[in-house]
Amino acid sequence: MSNCAIVGINWGDEGKGRMVDLVTSDYQVVVRYQGGGNAGHTVINEYGKFALHLLPSGIFRKDTINILGNGVALDPENLMKEVEEVRAKGVAITPDNLKISDRASLLLPWHRELDGLEEARLADKKYGSTKQGIAPFYSDKYQKKTILAGELFYPEELMEHLKDLMEWKNLTLEKVYGAKPCTMDDLKAWLDEYCEKIKPFVADTGEILKDAVKNGKNVLFEAQLGALRDLDYGIYPYTTSSNTLASFAPVGSGLPGAKIDKVIGVVKAYSTCVGEGPFVCEMFGEEAEKLRAEGQEYGAKTGRPRRVGPVDIVATRYGVECQGATEIALTKLDVLSYMEKIPVCTKYVINGKETDRFPFPAAQNLAKPVIEYMDGWNCDISKARTWDDLPDAAKKYVSYIEKEIGCFIKYVSVGPERESIIIR
Ligand code: GDP
Q1: Which residues of the chain have pLDDT under 70?
Q2: Can you give the pLDDT at residue 1?
Q3: Could you give the angle at the alpha carbon of 41 between the alpha carbons of 40 and 43, nearest 5°?
Q4: Cβ < 6 Å from ligand 1: which residues?
Q5: Cα(58) to centroid of ligand 1, in Å?
């Protein structure tokens, strides 16, 4: 048996979904271990094009068991909507191929509302939340003020627990934000409408994973977002509210004692960033518009235009270190084919001093990028399937990034489709 984590090296949206979809044929179990429905993995395959938010990307492979681990923000309402959407395109989703950890905490009806209320209070100081309730959810989880999916099987205790939580949360809703309080009727409706539907999927997934490992099955851990959004190691406070790093995968999955054999770090051939916060290598004006349009850089969840920039060596090297990546998948190389000269952010300058170290978050606002240029290749590379199909300038670009970030680029992706990949 071997296990592998597929993780983002940068700010998210690197193309993790397409990489999970590519390699899942070698894995019998795929686990999402953190985050919620606040981002999207885009997968294109024989069933069509999907923006997955919470479902693991192994859901399209027959005989793959997909697990939502204890580390995720389990939103029953959004999960069931997503399940219905994916089923409508002919994909079978049953309690045999989708399992929800009984230890996954549930995102409660007030979390999404609180996200919106807090962003409105912050006004122009907002963090750029996707308003899916993720930050209020994780803060409540760590305050031990939410419920576990397994509690749905203990209705009497559940109602008592929910009542206590509701009374506590109504203090915030009413007294802090002046909003409408939640009622037990609201909660009962939520339980009937959504939680009843997730119950058949809830299981002791820790046991399922232990059995899988014992029987020599391969487990794939799937992350959301990227290293620079990790709560502890990212661009705090513009991070997400969970740990996106591979080292968290065993903890968030239900195999806390597992060692990860392989970490595939996904890097985009240029940079993108959604929402607020420091983004040192950011491009503006026409140059940015063109790259955004070529790369179709609009958020999978919100449709928001993503901020764009050249590949950022400083941030990417840091992301590789944080993730402990053992190999890299470089995606969207085809998008750069229109450029005569390709910009690369090689260093930062802070208060007149050059650095190649990723700075402390507060110092990033002072950092200016050092941009150098490499030759472009100016031809369509989307049909390349081997390393030697690539023009020399493209090979040089990939090899340069590989050398600078100190990790083997095993996969070069030249299109969104499953087969548009070079494996070295
Ligand atoms: P994720 O959240 O890391 O899975 O990334 P997203 O799904 O937000 O963004 C990746 C987007 O790029 C999706 O629309 C993919 O279909 C697309 N994509 C992935 N790899 C490639 C590639 O090599 N070339 C092109 N042109 N598009 C790609």
Answers
A1: 1, 39, 126-129, 300-301
A2: 62
A3: 135
A4: 8, 12-18, 39-42, 44, 300, 331-332, 334-335, 413-416
A5: 16
Q: What type of residue is 64?
A: T
Q: How far is the CA of 235 from the centre of ligand 1 (A)?
A: 23
257-303, pLDDT tens digit by residue? 999 999 999 999 999 998 889 999 999 999 999 999 999 998 766 77
Q: Pick the atom of ligand 1 nearest to 414's CA.
A: 23
**Domains annotated on the chain, with CATH:** 3-102+202-264 (3.40.440.10), 105-198 (1.10.300.10), 267-423 (3.90.170.10)
Question: Is residue 392 among the annotated active site residues?
Answer: no
Distance between CA 17 and CA 217 in Å, rounded?
Answer: 21
Q: Give the DSSP H/E element, type plus range, for residue 74.
A: strand 73-74
Ligand 1 centre distance from Cα of residue 8 (Å): 12
Residues 190, 186: Cα–Cα separation, whole Å: 6
Residue nearest to ligand 1 atom 20, measured at CA: 416
Sign of CA dihedral 82, 83, 84, 90: positive
- Confidence (pTM): 0.92
